[in-house]
Amino acid sequence: MDVGPRLKAWKPRSNHEMVVCIHHSTDFEVHRNWLAITHSLPISQWYYEATSEWTLDYPPFFAWFEYILSHVAKYFDQEMLNVHNLNYSSSRTLLFQRFSVIFMDVLFVYAVRECCKCIDGKKVGKELTEKPKFILSVLLLWNFGLLIVDHIHFQYNGFLFGLMLLSIARLFQKRHMEGAFLFAVLLHFKHIYLYVAPAYGVYLLRSYCFTANKPDGSIRWKSFSFVRVISLGLVVFLVSALSLGPFLALNQLPQVFSRLFPFKRGLCHAYWAPNFWALYNALDKVLSVIGPRGFLRCLTLCALSSFMFGWHVHEKAILLAILPMSLLSVGKAGDASIFLILTTTGHYSLFPLLFTAPELPIKILLMLLFTIYSISSLKTLFRKEKPLFNWMETFYLLGLGPLEVCCEFVFPFTSWKVKYPFIPLLLTSVYCAVGITYAWFKLYVSVLIDSAIGKTKKQ
Amino acid sequence: MEKWYLMTVVVLIGLTVRWTVSLNSYSGAGKPPMFGDYEAQRHWQEITFNLPVKQWYFNSSDNNLPYWGLDYPPLTAYHSLLCAYVAKFINPDWIALHTSRGYESQAHKLFMRTTVLIADLLIYIPAVVLYCCCLKEISTKKKIANALCILLYPGLILIDYGHFQYNSVSLGFALWGVLGVSCDCDLLGSLAFCLAINYKQMELYHALPFFCFLLGKCFKKGLKGKGFVLLVKLACIVVASFVLCWLPFFTEREQTLQVLRRLFPVDRGLFEDKVANIWCSFNVFLKIKDILPHHIQLIMSFCFTFLSLLPACIKLILQPSSKGFKFTLVSCALSFFLFSFQVHEKSILLVSLPVCLVLSEIPFMSTWFLLVSTFSMLPLLLKDELLMPSVVTTMAFFIACVTSFSIFEKTSEEELQLKSFSISVRKYLPCFTFLSRIIQYLFLISVITMVLLTLMTVTLDPPQKLPDLFSVLVCFVSCLNFLFFLVYFNIIIMWDSKSGRNQKKIS
What is the pTM of this model? Predict the structure, then answer.
């Protein structure tokens, strides 16, 4: 049965759609435009098309993904696939796009399941809700940031983070080649994950290419395996070839790179220096002692450092640090404490993304839900150890409440709204920056201390 | 209770689902000239704010009764007045006399939805939380799961936050009444229930069980001593609360009569539109609405209603118990729904609330009933373009119930509280051992039919000769289900003896 005409028959009145539609961000138009570009134009035009200001600036695998989606989209609303239909947003377009995000989240759910398998259930409570696996799955699946960025603001981070978590899970399960392959694929979907590439690179080199360690944990140089290095390199090369190959053949590589790394935005070359240098010392120490957990901390540190020192970083990038950190939080009390500070301030910093009145109750309710659940469940999990927060941290986190009240409820009615409209954003950014920096610092210190303790233990 | 934070999480989930549903369309959106219930509520704010009390229920040049005239008791009018004061503060255009008719805007929708949320948060949700905390012989986890399932019940969320009504106020007051009466705070319970009746007259569906239960308690305490004192006190409370609510309308006889005429429109006929009750379903085969004269219809529905609820009520007077009270609430409200006069499809919520209260005792049947009750409102929900929220909330509710109560493992005769009934039947029919099997099959058939009908209604066009085919089918199927439930709940009540209670396993 042809579904198209049936769905057309269920046609809403166009007038009051505007009354009932929730505000959607420009990201809807961005993705609609990419659907249009990949569907209507040949490959040679994909990275040259500039009718809309939202040009294609993700790597080729994402473009192919939009191409496949567009073939489903045509059954919903053919008009959205016209490149010249700028800002076209019929209700069926919105429906299709929202459904595609939900559908792709299946991959995220699968990845969360795989990650939960890697968590050991040593601290088994009597009930299901107290098991680390359950807490972790709730923290990941109901992550406030991911929910509002993907499903309200609109992006496809769900399945991308799914790929990342899956690759982490494979590394935990010592299936290094699969992990590397998945990460390479991920890079060609969204190049922002380059931020954490050093962690992957050094870990794979260290734990996979050097097949054995000396008794004290440092590198046994003689155990370097050329075969493994080459096979890793081959995997990465093949994936890149699949992705960039067609554009290489068309001599369009410079154009693609100029879209991915727009120099005026200075995305790439400005951040490498402080990030890599700052981390290099920690990397080797950590990886020599702790293994996959160390890799996770390294990854989180990479993501956080790039968030802190990177150039033109979007606030959504904090999710890149929060999600891997969730995996660490159910393991140790110290990590749980850092995770809670990071996640609460990080999520609060996403508030300015949703600024319309109908969305206000939703973001407050979801934030309260996630924060109350995460704090209370982790506190219950680690109740036998010292309290998770000291008085200073508690005070800081509680301060978020009055801050929100001031910015969203009090400020709009004051006279400063006209003269200094940027004050709420400024306050939010500064307050959250304090928390995120503090979390970064604590994580860094704990990584260094643990590696030192580990070294003395081995000796 | 120790797991307070989990209960907070449950309430937050309930609030989130409610607000998300409220972002959808409402009744009569963009449909002049009459619009829908949303416009009715806005209009009542306009009337109560701009006109003096004496004119609220009367037809005049300023108050055109055929255009959404007030037809709920005074408490609704006072609530509308309160909302109107807030509306005046934000934007007077929303309630300007005459000129604000059909006013629709994003800001106004936000305001109206917020009023529903606040009323819910103040009255209904605390009642649910307190009720679940007061449940006896259940672990804390089950109490929290119970609260989650009740708060996720789709019917109430879709009608209040989608279609747009304030059922949570009247149902909340009724629930406070149940709480008070079950916990032996009879006076407070009665007061709360009187407030419920004075908010929406449909709460009278619950009045008989309250009356019978309290009367039974008085009898038990002895009519010559404490019982009589209690009876007098209750009577005073009821009279006082009614007088207080109706005070402005007691000044003239004509005022009181007019309000009563608006509340009980006996001229409007046996039923209106499509509703899942007996008369509407019977009308498919035999047009009784047109054949029978008006007063005969009234007498017929009166007789059927009272005959069907009498056994349970009498038992409640003779053996007042908290459990019996809750089940009698269900069966009474269901009898009224099926047989009474001028029933609207939303009145099924009056049955759903008591069923939610017995969710922990018979999870399988309660979940089944609550699903059917949501399904029975399908034509209304489709008219308001709430298909997506309906499907999503129904699935969420179903999943919550299945995981919280493991309902599919609780289908034995004992779990369904049909053990004493089966034993009685087996005295005459020794081979009657397949009751739970039958019920499981019926459940399967019911769910498949509901899913199929939903799919058909959404995807297919009805034939030209029968444009209402799908609504009628939905009502008919729901009615059959409800008849089955009526019989089932009455069986539980009548066969619930002391020996039965000892055999019941405590979960």
Answer: 0.87
